Amino acid sequence: MMRTGRTSVSAVVCLLVCCWAFAVAAAQDLLVDSEQRLGNEASWAVALGDVDGDGDLDAVVANLDAGAIVWLNDGTGHFTDFGQRLAIGAYLALADLDGDGALDIVFGSPDQPVTVWWNDGSGTFVQGETPLAPAGCSALGVGDLSGDGRQDIFVGMRDADLVLFNMGDRTFADSGQRFGSAPTGGVALGDMDGDGDLDVVTAGWDEPGHVWQNDGTGTLTALCELATTTLHVHGIAVGDVDADGDLDVFFALAGGICCRNIWLNDGTGKLTPRGSNVGAPDNQGIAVGDLNLDGRLDIVLANGMVSPLSSTVRLGQEAWFVDSGLRMGSAFAGGVALGDLDGDGDLDLFIAFLSLVGPPYVQNPHPNEVWFNTTNE
After folding, report:
1. Is the peptide bond before 360 cis (omega within 30 degrees of 0)?
2. Sign of the CA dihedral 231, 236, 239, 244?
3. Distance between CA atoms of 179 and 154, rounded to whole angstroms?
4. Which has the closest alpha carbon to 223: 185, 266, 165?
5. DSSP 223-251
6. Are the CB atoms for 250 and 238 separated by under 8 Å?
7. Which residue blocks in the chain are alpha helix, DSSP H?
8. Quick one: which of 310, 309, 277, 312 has its CA closest to 298?
9. Gap between the terminal Cα atoms of the chain
10. Cα–Cα distance between 148 and 165 in angstroms, integer?
């Protein structure tokens, strides 16, 4: 009986390994390069949304050298430059800030004030009159924090983070709240404690991360402190990784520091690290979504080093995340965004690239790329 038991275990292990190897081999064709090379700027971030109201997802790319570009989608996932040059910056978010049904843009930059650009509904943008916050932005999050139906702005800063309340007349008011005192590398908004309003998750460098609990009016207090002082967080995403009905947290970690990419929520907004590393030494951006339509979240990691490291996909399995074997691009990827770009019902990928040369670190231009999902083909 003992011998039979050992044989059975070995057979099961062999079967699992073979299934894993087959899944990884199949996943290597999950995303295919569209062969589009979009622009030639030092691109740091990308956001997807229907900015021209034609029913498909367009892309807005934040550039550090030539101003942001609006890339319009023809409905098949192929993009053309709309011809505008907006704010120079590294961070952006798309949201309908004035309630007119069109997506506006918030821009942030390390050395320029935070600004809003208003959309006329066709994808043409005009800059707002007044800077919203001082220079030093290092991350952005947008959502209705105050519960009045208007989209507010959480600004991650190089020093103390702040909240800007949307006044409904194309103006914003500083809430007076300040959070932390060190650089914030990532901001994500979500209902972390299950009470129906948006809370805020922040983390960065040289101080603990936090879950900031919302009282429903936009007043935030510390709910959970995350032991991230040894980490170097460059991005945050939220999603229910363990299918228990609450939002967990994914970190893009840089600086060659291992592990604690994923933090699990106990349902009250308190997070604990799940453990093992799922990334490469330098993750610059992160996006999560169900790429292969198996009901589990997958992870896209935008990677960057002085010697280029391709961006990667980790597929969600029952026990953990496995490397899909996909390698995308060969340059410093500042940001990634997932969305159905070609209208076939699965999630495609837009990657914002630059060429980082150094040290000293010089940010040079590099074209962006679009990768199509083959799941529904």
Report:
1. yes
2. positive
3. 10
4. 266
5. EEEE--TT--EEEEEEE-TTSSSS-EEEE
6. yes
7. 2-27
8. 312
9. 48
10. 10
pLDDT along the chain (377 residues), means of 10: 41 43 62 97 97 98 94 98 95 98 96 96 94 92 98 97 97 96 96 98 94 98 91 94 96 80 96 78 90 97 74 90 92 94 98 84 91 95
Give the angle 53-58-61 at the CA atoms, nearest 5°.
Answer: 135
Q: Measuring CA to CA, which residue among 352, 374, 356 is closest to residue 364?
A: 356
> 């899944």: which residue's tokens?
23
Q: How many CA atoms lie within 13 A of 282 on its CB side?
A: 15
- Burial class (CB within 10 angstroms; exposed 0-12, middle 13-18, buried 19+) of 78: middle
Q: Which two tokens stand for residue 199?
A: 């809370």
- DSSP string for 109-149: -SSS-BEEEEE-SSS-EEE-SS--B-S-EEEEEEE--SSSS
DSSP state of 6: H
Report the alpha-carbon distance of residue 63 to residue 222 in Å, rounded: 33
pTM listed for this prediction: 0.92
Per DSSP, the three-state class of 375 is coil
In whole angstroms, what is the distance from residue 170 CA to residue 115 CA? 11
* Bridge partners, 335 (sequence order): 352
Cβ 24 vs Cβ 53: under 8 Å: no
Residue 321 is predicted with a pLDDT of: 92
- Closest to 309 (Cα-Cα) out of 332, 286, 326, 287: 332
